[in-house]
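Support reply, case 0932

Customer input (verbatim):
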Amino acid sequence: MAKQARAAATRHQVLEGAALSFEKLGYGGASLSGILSYADVTKGALYFHFESKEALAWAVIKEQHAMAMLAAQRVLATAQSPMEAILLCAKEMARQLLTEPIVRAGVRLTLELGTSRGPATDPYIDWTDTLVALAGKAREAGELRGTVDPAALARFLVSSFTGMQLVSEALTGRSDLYERLADMWALLLPSIASPDMLPRLLELAALRDDVAS
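Our regenerated output:
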């Protein structure tokens, strides 16, 4: 058990080092020697867990996706309504981008390695599916206007958040990400939320502190 724990810790250490390298340099710019430097492990330890830079990149994407899905499960277990869950999931994603190198690297790699098919598209598909289900429940509960199509809303939210965080990264290193997220909701919610839910949702969207952790 102790040996397994050490192996798991070393694997995670390699992943974190790879994430720091991929986040800063991208897939093309990162090198195994640089990853070794960031991870502070031996070459043997790296190759024990990962056979190549490509394998490391896919592992970072997989870990980022797992972190996002676990956070979504926590939000779903505690949110008071489907619409609140949608807002809190977005806020949790913003928090992870600001605090988790693996998440930042995974998002960058997903964009760089993404194709019309393959593992790099899984995070977008699963995120969209989660939002479709939540939006459907929100409409059934009267929290969304009846004219709102859950699938169209989910696709719009995933695309909007992705573009917003990229622009935030380019302009401010994501330091204004919470503010840009609040702007998105302030513009969108009045057109999709039921009037009785709107004040509570706008209040929740404007909160700067991460209430989803």
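We compared this against your earlier run and they match. Two observations from our side: Residues 164 and 180 are 7 Å apart (CA to CA). The mean pLDDT is 90. Please reopen the case if you see a mismatch on your end.
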